[in-house]
Amino acid sequence: xxxxxxxxxxxxxxxxxxxxxxxxxxxxxxxxxxxxxxxxxxxxxxxxxxxxxxxxxxxxxxxxxxxxxxxxxxxxxxxxxxxxxxxxxxxxxxxxxxxxxxxxxxxxxxxxxxxxxxxxxxxxxxxxxxxxxxxxxxxxxxxxxxxxxxxxxxxxxxxxxxxxxxx
Length: 167
Known about the structure:
Radius of gyration: 18 Å
Number of strands: 2
Shape: elongated
Number of helices: 10
Low-confidence stretches: none
Strand order of the largest sheet: 1-2
């Protein structure tokens, strides 16, 4: 969807005011998703979607780097809570990635040391799964109704049937 549908959604529907769009991160893949979501939250709100796009474009290399050193990852749980995700960011090589996108290493480390915020993100994602029946990405919700659409073609048809028209 990010490759095929995001631009038309924003340019043809959201920018006209006919449709509103809210991005919510859904943590499916455990610590990496949680870490990436927290780091996105360290940026300015208007940078969240562009930063998410950068992550999607680089997800394969990010995942490969994050999970390459299983021995180091296994030792993270022995650390105090406020150090676990800071160390995960080191192992995964995330500080350089985010630094080149406007989030300093000190800022990233500070965000990842905030275990309460990480825990709140995890609980929020769990509530999406439990309360809203979200089980995949992307998932679209229109007027509190989960849609049966995961690509732009399906979503656009539903938007138009609901009264939205492209600009």
